[in-house]
Design a protein that fits this description.
The structure is a homodimer of 498-residue chains. By secondary structure, chain A is mainly alpha-helical. Chain A folds into 2 domains: 144 residues, no CATH class; 332 residues, Orthogonal Bundle (Neurolysin, domain 3), CATH 1.10.1370. Chain A is built from 21 helices and 3 strands. The first copy, chain A, is globular, with a radius of gyration of 23 Å. Chains A and B meet through helix 1 and helix 2 of A and helix 1 and helix 2 of B.
Chain lengths: 498, 498
């Protein structure tokens, strides 16, 4: 028990460091003036250093590894805390501090280089940094004792329990079953994009509509707030402080609306975690994949559904009378589910989205398994775009340079985006068995859906592992067929009806 | 030199702690959701504890006191750094950590009790806390070895070099020279307050005008930002990040306008400090009094001057055509310098303001020198209001409970507010000798005035002590007669002209 006390004390301190670093990062990403950043970066690296020293301190190691050996004597929650702490410790403890510090600098620098490279469509300037990051990643995995199967280690880092084998099975279904369907839809969809999609919607009005949506989804403003930032994100430190941001594009109102609903999904997850867990390391969503399943569920399964807009379209028309004057509900529904070949993942529609992820997954495998020559990456990228989406980017910023992830060393992260959508579909086929889902949406009773998700997923925080959770909810292991079924049912009804 | 290296290393870490604590406090005071606060308070107390341990660590003490002994061998800047560090250390090093922690808790609790007491006009409920705070203050001063002259210690804490004797001389001038003048003005001023002062001005429009003023005063938005909060304040971590807030009262537009100019004064001071000082403990305004002199100078000497509105009143009329339609520049000038007896210090006009401070100064002296029975404080307060301003508050929230300071343990702070105004007047009579001040204002060349203040005051940060600075600028020691002269010249012209 002495050991557990030590563990809790050090963890509490770590949580304090994490809190202030998080608040600083929120500030940096939403409002800090430009010139504040360099000094701040230096100061924050000191605090990060303190936090790292604590997280790898001998006392903490002894506590975590000591308790792990006797974990069967702990109660369930304490055992989970120790398991999670050990998982975190295993990742960093064998890496020399120098290597860690160097890596942090490299990643910092690479992101800046990537920004410029993207701006200038210049993959060559980014390539050496990409190479260094990949080498560093491989080295760090070796330190951790996993020379073989490097990519598996990364996949498991971002989604515990996942592996190449499981993702291969998932993406095989996408490739063989979804890709042909997508091609069929793209061939049959109308040529002309409805004008109201890209009409002008004033920022202040968009914001008011987002605020309306916050209310619809029962987001608790005593424990959160909405703000503006360059890229939308959800931010949280504990269940009592869960914020999110959107951006407002004057000529693409759906960007703020669906980003808001997406982030609300992340935010509701975090707000609905048991407050009791706030003093533990379990007070957070259990994995990237499950988190994304919640954001996609709210955004797509609820937010892009017909029943949802049966309730809310009138409100939207009142707020945007000019833009939507001659747009029927049916047309609006088609508009929010508009499908098209596109280069940029973050702007892709629900149907083509997984193909963007498939491409990244295949390339990451090549990098970590086949030691592919980086020189050829842009070409590989373009060929895959051509194969799956039948379009070919003319510049690197529309292709391989579009995403920040690799410059930040995040390999193995992309697959969780598609996985989240697939989890969401699997959960959907369970929820419609257990609730009168469509009726609840039509009654504007999102609270009932929130409650179901709270009871089944949210309140647990990280007490349960992702695959364990999914199995308990759906009575089944992860099954990608639900995802394809969901997409086919929805998009066939919109685009392939005779 | 080894010792100096240690000093700089520990100081850098302390600055990192200070930065994250500051950012958290900015967040708490401007946007953090209500329920975020309790958990955050607990976490921040951990970080504060780390910072305190560092600030009182043996290594730091050895470095600071060691270097102080040999300070004559240091260059000027390093010597000033050590002197300032020693001054900070002296204040806390002899206080037992337990006492410090208890005091922090007491102050925290007292502020909450005060809030309720103010809300309920209930001095009795606050009295025991006030008593505990005063006792704790006296005890801490004893620990520091200053049993005698406790109030002097507090006065010097908030304004280095000031003492009862100096403040007595200052407030004597106020009492004998200004109080009768104020009474004369109050007797002769028109009875009816002009309606445009309390007309309705929409928040969004007020904000746009504040943004216009930011531009007029050359506030640098690459190193700052404007935000809204319950009480206006300026916030800074270093010269590259200096922000300020205002609040918008729909029926009192002057509140946001002059709070903005006031905070701009604080902010320009901080933005104009030499960037080279950012890595030192000298990267801040040198004292409360000098800081307040800058805010008051911008707010009153520039912002409430006739020439200023000769340039900007047209702009204001364009932005508020309905409210100012029939208001001449002369009437407007009288409106922004409207004088009246009022209960609340923060809403007081420029002329009666020092009398509010006089009252607090006299009461603080009674508390620390005469051990006055706290029971009698409200009565004492009311009698003084009657004597100096000829009005008597009917409730404690309009009287003794109006200000947060004492509940936060800040005794000796109030006098710096009046001192700042007096410094500003003394600086004013110098600046008009050296610059064509009125012409610069009429040419909307605030930049030239900023530059003068930068060269004479701002860029030094805390390199020079307040009284030293004042003497260098004005060729004279602090002389309160300038203040009274300034007020008399200005307000006689407005109110006592035949």
């Amino acid at each position: 028990m002495e050991l557990f006390k030590t563990f809790k004390e050090i963890q509490k301190k770590q949580k304090a460091y994490q809190l202030v670093l998080n608040i600083a990062s929120w500030d940096s990403n939403t409002e800090a003036p430009k010139n504040a950043i360099p000094y701040r970066a230096e100061m924050l690296s000191i605090i990060s250093g303190e936090s790292f020293s604590l997280a790898t301190s001998k006392a903490y190691q002894e506590a975590v590894y000591g308790l792990f050996k006797e974990k069967d004597q702990l109660n369930e929650q304490s055992r989970k805390e120790i398991e999670r702490a050990k998982r975190g410790l295993d990742k960093i403890v064998k890496i020399p501090k120098d290597e860690y510090v160097e890596y942090a600098k490299l990643v910092n620098m690479s992101q800046r280089v990537w920004e410029d490279a993207k701006e200038n469509d210049d993959f060559e300037s980014f390539k050496p940094y990409l190479n260094k990051i990949i080498e560093a990643q491989k080295r760090m995995i070796r330190y951790r004792g996993h020379e073989e199967n490097a990519y598996n280690v990364l996949l498991d880092d971002f989604e515990e329990g996942m592996s190449k084998e499981l993702y291969d099975a998932f993406f095989d279904v996408i490739k063989t079953d979804l890709v042909p369907f997508v091609k069929e839809v793209l061939a049959k969809k109308p040529n002309e994009k409805p004008a109201f999609i890209t009409d002008l919607y004033e920022e202040a009005d968009q914001k008011r509509f987002v605020e309306y949506l916050m209310d619809v989804f029962n987001y608790d403003l005593d424990r959160g707030l909405l703000k503006k930032s360059v890229h939308p994100f959800t931010w949280n430190t504990h269940s009592q402080d869960v914020r999110f941001t959107v951006r407002y594009l004057k000529n693409f109102v759906f960007s703020s609306i669906f980003a808001a609903i997406h982030e609300l999904g992340h935010a509701l997850y975090e707000q609905q975690i048991d407050e009791d867990l706030d003093t533990t390391n379990l007070n957070t969503g259990t994995s990237m994949g499950i988190h994304e399943s919640q954001s996609r569920f709210y955004e797509n399964v609820i937010g892009r559904s017909y029943p949802f807009w049966e309730v809310h379209y009138d409100k939207m028309k009142t707020m945007f009378p000019k833009q939507l004057e001659n747009v029927s509900l049916d047309d609006f529904y088609k508009g929010i589910n508009w499908v098209e070949e596109s280069f940029i993942r973050v702007e892709a529609d629900e149907l083509t989205y997984p193909l963007h992820i498939l491409i990244r997954y295949e390339i990451e495998r090549m990098i970590f398994e086949d030691n592919i020559d980086l020189e050829t990456l842009p070409e590989v990228w373009n060929n895959k775009m051509k194969a799956y989406l039948n379009i070919e980017p003319q510049k690197a910023s529309d292709g391989i340079l579009q995403d920040v992830h690799w410059s930040a060393g995040m390999f193995g992260y992309f697959p969780t985006y598609a996985l989240g959508s697939a989890y969401a579909a699997q959960i959907y086929y369970t929820i419609i068995e257990e609730l009168d889902f469509e009726k609840l949406i039509k009654e504007n009773n999102i609270a009932a859906i929130n409650n179901w998700l709270k009871a089944k997923i949210h309140h647990f925080g990280a007490l349960k592992k992702p695959r364990e959770l999914l199995k308990e909810i759906t009575n089944e292991d992860f099954n990608p067929n639900y995802y394809v079924r969901y997409l086919k049912e929805k998009y066939a009804a919109i685009y392939l009806k005779e």
